[in-house]
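User: Sequence recovery, please. Input:
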């Protein structure tokens, strides 16, 4: 039987339970565009010296050849995770011939989105599938939406923590089912409170006008003296309808109440036909336009601010992995790139995310119906577009609350969770990070979005030049630093191994690509 937050805090304050909180595992996936020193997209393909984008464990590409993705391995030290990310970026800088990493979520100037090259993954069937999937994204939503960059934060509690929580609850569920049940409770609470993430960390209230390129919208943009467009109270246009969203998915109603309803909802979504996408065609004149014409080509196309995850086996779909082994970790996907730090995410952010997600795991989390879920999605939409508007009220059950009022209630609880984590880890990192984030609740001018507007609109700076100045500074600092967690030999060996692995995958293919796809979707 689940308990109140206070009861869990009291139980976990006992030393033999508190110690189980000190083994949180994390990983960061950071996306970044490769750009030239004048602020345009690089036209160079993914560098061979960075390894195979198909198989390299730390350096790959996302939508485009120019959109890099850095992946840190699972680690129980937040400090090490940041060090690993710095090392991956340092090695990347050494191999890209003076190109820079764009430090913003929204892309630089792009005069023609047809010039954005699709990511290539070699001649294997799985490599071709990844590229065709991206071709489908281009044909469905356009390329510009796909070169928006973000941070994905992967998070999991230790097995010892789940055993302790199961014991505290007095649950009779098998441990695998218990863990999945409680991760879904965490996810539901995240959806209740995830408006906090763009409020605290959104840093994309302003755009280069080239991003719109005839994209239909009804947003009341203002224009800075230098020609950039912005919304006065926006926090994260990346998370708005302009950004990484999919309106075709609004009717899917994926249920997050338990593993079975979630998996069945996702499986239904990838088999649901779309009249709109059917007009594109699948294989036209011998060339694939998309993998299929369903609402989702594959499960990765499900856009959500958080996902339950399990590491997949070769050829296994994400939902199949979840059905097989239950939830292993969660992926938080609502984070803008933090332009004020070289890694795009700070150590302090990680500490606060630990607090926030632990709060979500230990707080009561009743099931969500479609109406409640819609209310929480509306809260998120409101905050990304006008989160710093002092008139904004969010829906909290039967009540409406301002961000200041609701934030005060939540941060009182966050402070208690922070003290619990500081007791487990030692020091004051969690209390300090939480106190710093609360300052943004009390004063919205301290948020990254407000700072971005202040420097570009009020101080009349050139956004492109500002981003390039940051990018050049981050590049110089990286190249002047020493490796901390990895070293050059590790990267050299990993690059070589990734190319060998790609070749092995390609040589092992025996099916035609058509047959491979047919088998994949038949399973």
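Assistant: Recovered sequence (523 residues):
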């Amino acid at each position: 039987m689940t308990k109140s937050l206070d009861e869990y805090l009291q139980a976990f304050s006992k030393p033999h339970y508190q110690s189980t909180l000190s083994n949180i595992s994390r990983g960061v996936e950071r996306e970044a565009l490769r750009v030239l020193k004048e602020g345009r997209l690089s036209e160079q393909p993914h560098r061979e010296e960075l390894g195979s984008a198909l198989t390299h464990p730390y350096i790959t590409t996302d939508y485009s050849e120019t959109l890099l993705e850095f992946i840190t391995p699972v680690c129980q030290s937040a400090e090490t995770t940041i060090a690993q990310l710095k090392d991956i970026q340092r090695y990347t800088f050494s191999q890209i011939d003076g190109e820079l990493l764009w430090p913003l979520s929204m892309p630089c100037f792009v005069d023609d989105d047809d010039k954005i090259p699709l990511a290539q993954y070699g001649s294997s069937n799985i490599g071709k599938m990844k590229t065709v999937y991206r071709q489908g994204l281009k044909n469905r939503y356009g390329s510009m939406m796909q070169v928006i960059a973000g941070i994905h934060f992967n998070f999991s509690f230790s097995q010892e923590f789940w055993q302790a929580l199961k014991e505290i609850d007095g649950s009779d569920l098998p441990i695998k089912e218990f863990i999945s049940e409680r991760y879904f409770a965490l996810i539901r609470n995240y959806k209740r409170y995830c408006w906090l993430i763009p409020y605290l960390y959104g840093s994309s209230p302003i755009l280069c006008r080239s991003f719109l390129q005839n994209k239909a919208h009804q947003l009341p943009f203002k224009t800075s003296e230098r020609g950039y467009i912005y919304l006065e109270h926006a926090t994260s246009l990346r998370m708005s309808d302009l950004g990484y969203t999919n309106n075709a998915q609004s009717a899917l109603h994926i249920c997050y109440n338990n593993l079975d309803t979630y998996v069945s909802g996702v499986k239904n979504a990838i088999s649901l036909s779309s009249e709109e996408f059917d007009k594109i065609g699948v294989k036209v004149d011998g060339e694939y336009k998309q993998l299929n014409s369903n609402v989702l080509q594959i499960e990765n196309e499900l856009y959500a601010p958080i996902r339950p995850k399990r590491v997949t086996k070769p050829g296994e779909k994400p939902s199949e992995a979840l059905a097989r082994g239950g939830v292993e970790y969660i992926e938080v996907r609502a984070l803008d790139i933090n332009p004020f730090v070289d890694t795009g995410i700070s150590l302090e952010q990680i500490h606060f995310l630990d607090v926030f997600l632990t709060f979500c795991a230990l707080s009561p989390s009743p099931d969500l119906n479609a109406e409640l879920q819609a209310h929480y999605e509306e809260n998120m939409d409101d905050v990304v577009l006008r989160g710093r508007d002092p008139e904004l009220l969010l829906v909290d059950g039967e009540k409406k609350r301002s961000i200041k009022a609701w934030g005060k209630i939540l941060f009182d609880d966050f402070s208690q969770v922070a003290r619990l984590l500081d007791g487990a880890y030692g020091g004051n990192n969690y209390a300090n990070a939480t106190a710093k984030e609360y300052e943004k609740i009390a004063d919205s001018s301290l948020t990254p979005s407000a700072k971005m507007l202040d420097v570009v609109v009020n101080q009349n700076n050139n956004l492109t030049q500002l981003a390039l100045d940051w990018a050049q500074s981050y590049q110089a600092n990286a190249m002047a630093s020493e490796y901390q967690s990895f070293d050059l030999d590790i990267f050299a060996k990993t690059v070589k191994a990734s190319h060998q692995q790609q070749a092995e995958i390609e040589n092992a293919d025996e099916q035609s690509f058509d047959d491979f796809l047919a088998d994949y979707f038949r399973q």
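The mean pLDDT is 95.
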